[in-house]
Here is the input.
Amino acid sequence: MATIRNVKQPHVVQVKENPQDLFFLNVTLDIFYRLARLDVVNHRSSYPQLHLAAFYGWVDIIVKLLSLGSNPDVQDWKGTTALHVACASVEVASTEVVQVLMNKGADPNLKVEATGFAPIHHLIGACCNAAEPWDCNGKMETLLDGGADINIRDKHGRTPIHIASCITWDNSAFDLLHQRGARLDLLDDMERSILHYAAIYGDLDHIEYLREHRPTGLDPEGKDVNNQTPMDLMKK
Here is the structure.
């Protein structure tokens, strides 16, 4: 019997004569060894091992855990899956992690209950931050090729391209979604279009992009629930 201790309680792994048990122990010890080397300890919340491996881009650990029967859609205490975590990871190998999880049956449309975020929302939302995920567009292509709904809505009715409209320094995610067939005419729960979002964030590049491509279905004079047009929001 091997005991791995953390602050909260001991984690006990029983190893009998089954080689599979020993393999599982080796994988578990490998994870904790790597975390110890990185000096990373989470005292408040526990995360499934699959999530930790996805966050750090440990492809070999992901493969081992899945081969041992780990559920690719296991959720942590927040409701996120390893696919959500890998999408937002800044590690170079995280693109391969996304591919491995998808190949093993991870659901690209599984939502976090609190936010309604599917992995593609999580990915694009992370792109709005200073520390962008590694290979955002590559991961997006993998999700879409694997069956991710390009027009899936979050808790507030926002589609991925609504959120992509908030990325002020790069049009590539928006362009990819547009080229892959994302609907540009959909409104969120506040009846806001992608033009409203581009206006809120003062993103003239997105507005110029839309003017150049002249997509159908967009109403530049459309009003949200507060009776505001995109131009009204831009003036604020």
Observations:
- Residues 46-149 form a domain with the Serine Threonine Protein Phosphatase 5, Tetratricopeptide repeat fold (CATH 1.25.40.20).
- The longest helix spans residues 19-38.
- The radius of gyration is 21 Å.
